[in-house]
Amino acid sequence: SERPTTTRGQVSQAQNDGWDMALTAKGVLEAAALLGQTYELVVTNVPYLTGKRMSEGLGDHAKRVFPDSKSDLATVFLERAIEFCSRGGVSQLVMTQNWLFLAGYKKLREKLLQSVNINLLAKLGGGAEAFESGPGNITNICLLTVTKVDKNPTRSLIRGIDVSERKTPPEKAALLITKAIACRLQEAVLANPDSVITTDILASSGLLSDFVEYSNGIQSGDSCRFT
Fold it and tell me: Quick check: helix, strand or coil at residue 199?
């Protein structure tokens, strides 16, 4: 029988495959080393992905490891960024706003208000108006700065600014510099109905949900006629 032969091209391809595997393994090891460290500053624009749209593996991981923020990958990243921080470390994130008030994030808000200083919350409004190449107005955006602390932070101040009324990124950027910053104690915010995070003083009469019921969300006014 003839002895099998190996061409120079096959040898070269095998070498390339070997290098690819080695580089991939090196990258995985470096990533693991980075993920195992703590940091003084974490800065990122978090990804937005609702729990319903997560893959099965990602959704299961979020439910198991981050039960208070599992509803959106954005809030999962918020918790993970804080975990990355050493004591006194700071996280600065571009975030969605819905976690600040939706009932499903109540436990997350309570945990944050009792474990980190919410140094600054800047509400920017719709994504298409906040950035030149934003994610569209499918969600409202905020800038968030939090500090991981040793002691109970409820006596710390939350500082907030809202530039949602301006409609272009340059207008918002200018107003962020000049607009007065509102402040409230975190313990006062924790006492809000559902611990809604805002620097505004909420009425003590309760939430709208205490008084009304609804069968569905926003719909067009002529749905009953045409649907």
Answer: coil
